Write the structure tokens for this entry.
Amino acid sequence: MKKIIALVLSAIMVLAMFAGCTPDQQGPGKNTYNLDTVKEGYLTVITSPDYAPYEFYALDKDGNPSLAGFDMALAQYIADYLGLTLEVVPMSFDGILGEMQLGKADLALAGLSPDPDRLTAMDFSDIYYEGKQAFVTVASKASQFTDLASTNNANFTIAAQTGTIQVGLAEQYSPNAELIQLTAATDIVAELLKGNSNLDGAYIEWDVAAAYKVNYPDLHIVCEVPYDQEGNVIGVKKNNTDLLNYVNEALNKCVDEGTFAQFVATALEQAAGDNYQGMLDPDGKVPSSSDAE
Ligand code: ARG
């Protein structure tokens, strides 16, 4: 009987860990390096879980969501390294910059590109992942696009996620097209895949497009889009130098020892399985109107 209870308890703990939520009874961590964080003993991480394989919700067989993605695994790794209890706060991507500006979170892990304009709101960790940019469309519209230059056409409506560097890419490479900004990356892809959509294409992270393509083969990657701040970084609370240094130490260890590569492999597997990308409803459930993959 004891064994069963222990098993059930450890299953609950594992679930809680993967949910990125902290069971209340866990309490603050021992704070190995005596770091100053927004909530003592905790590592408060903000993210935008609409971006597989970076961050999203994996669904179990009953459709229950838990946070997944290599950014989330890295957040847990860093929290463990620092001896802090991880607390993840999901929000839409365009909220992240403001929260960091206000100093409300210790870290932002959201497939962030090191856009120098963001340095007023946060500091950047070292680069932990070499992401790249893509222009996408759907199979039925693929013949309209031959290369990046062909996207610059006044007849086209092109989307990018609000607050992202992709908005800048759209303005740079497709200035004549009509630009639509949507708050969730999910909505962009859903809109594109809708048969009668007036959306012709979108700028999005390459790996996110590739992950969608596994489940939605109709999505078509036209070409890579050059961007001079390649790679992804962690946003670190401005001027918290100790935190920045230890985060870099943790993340470099994670990459060098090969653990991060495993996080990526797991994330890709989970992204190909049942998942949901976007915000949960107030009860922590997948909104019933949405189509989970
Ligand atoms: N890399 C892009 C940027 O930093 C897009 C990131 C979007 N992230 C997300 N979780 N939706 O602007």
